[in-house]
Specification:
Elements (H helix, E strand, L loop, with lengths): L5 E4 L7 H9 L8 E5 L1 H11 L5 E3 L15 E5 L16 H17 L4 E4 L4 H5 L6 H8 L6 E5 L4 E6 L7 H4 L2 H19 L5 E4 L13 H15 L4 E5 L7 H4 L4 E6 H12 L4 E5 L4 E5 L16 H9 L3
Helix pairs in contact: 7-8
């Protein structure tokens, strides 16, 4: 097989995934075969609700290992799950279905048939149940990976938070020199491997203006020493910079990626700049995992108004 298949776990059944996926699959062609792991029953119900048609090739999980895939058709692996209506309120009822979908996807990754995984939107509150703080951490646990990073990628500028989905009150306690060094090294390695490029990295401080009225200044005691360690390791990094100015146009044009201390510090500006034109990468896994950079968008279910850009970019990123 010249191009390894892109494996897509549909994710939360009561999300905008089917709608935005149909917008893409009807209009775009890809080099790689697409394998969708989903509930066939729900897919058919949602097709009727959305008044859409879809020609697909249903395959057994065993057949994917025989490369029995169609390049010009969507390939579907059915996971047994159903609900009364095409779209319902998000609940924990779908948890076992999503878990099984991920299990099949990860089994395919482990087999070597594919190294490209996409997951559709997931309700962290319902599916992860506070056991994991995000899908990034869930997949890292499932693959027994200790060193990983979440990257919101756009070819013009990407960002990565050191602390992902933890409450703000825990951020200062959970950042450390070793955590910063490990995450940035894995990002640096990914850029060199994937893009054949030594990335230019900027890192923010934790405190406003990288200053603190407290006795302990994390930017001087943690962030700056981490930058020195990384520079000695030949990582092209500068900072720490104040988070309120690093995203000005003149500054952001100098770097490939901005690493921040916590989620909203870097995700708020990147989404303001690019809106849906970005994707979520988990760097450091044994395969490339991508997801659209948005949630289930329960408010717009069935309205056919949702933006498909991030899912399209996710597929295009893996179409190699």
């Amino acid at each position: 097989m010249k191009f390894k298949p892109i494996i897509i776990v549909a994710g939360e059944p009561n999300s905008i995934f089917t709608e935005i996926f149909l917008k893409i699959i009807h209009k775009k062609k890809f080099k790689s075969p697409i394998v969708l792991i989903c509930s066939k029953k729900i897919l058919l119900k949602q097709l009727r609700a959305l008044k859409e048609n879809l020609n697909f090739n249903e395959i057994d999980i065993k057949k994917i290992f025989l490369n029995n895939l169609k390049f010009k058709k969507l390939n579907v692996i059915d996971i047994d799950f159903d609900q009364n209506k095409a779209f319902q309120k998000i609940s924990s009822n779908s948890n076992k279905y999503i878990e099984k979908s991920f299990e099949i996807g990860l089994k395919i990754m482990k087999s070597g048939i594919s190294n490209k995984l996409i997951n559709g939107p997931i309700s962290k509150k319902n599916f992860l149940k506070k056991k994991y703080i995000g899908v990034t951490e869930y997949l890292a646990h499932k693959t027994k990976v200790k060193n990983y990073a979440m990257v919101i990628f756009n070819k013009k500028l990407s960002v990565s938070p050191i602390i992902t989905h933890e409450p703000l009150k825990f951020v200062s306690k959970n950042i450390s020199k070793s955590k910063i060094v490990k995450k940035i090294k894995i990002i640096d390695k990914f850029w060199k491997t994937k893009f054949n490029q030594k990335p230019k990295i900027a890192i923010t401080g934790l405190n406003p203006h990288c200053e603190s009225s407290d006795i302990f200044n994390e930017d001087k005691k943690i962030v700056s020493p981490a930058v020195k360690i990384l520079k000695k390791s030949k990582v092209n990094i500068e900072g720490p910079f104040p988070a309120d100015t690093i995203f000005t146009k003149s500054n952001r044009n100098k770097y490939n990626i901005v690493v921040g201390m916590y989620h909203d510090q870097v995700l708020t500006p990147i989404k303001t700049i690019f809106e849906f034109d970005a994707i979520n990468l988990t760097v450091g896994l044994p395969f490339i995992r991508v997801s659209p950079d948005h949630g289930p968008n329960e408010r717009m279910l069935g309205q056919k108004k949702s933006d498909f850009t991030s899912l399209l970019n996710s597929i295009k990123f893996l179409d190699f």
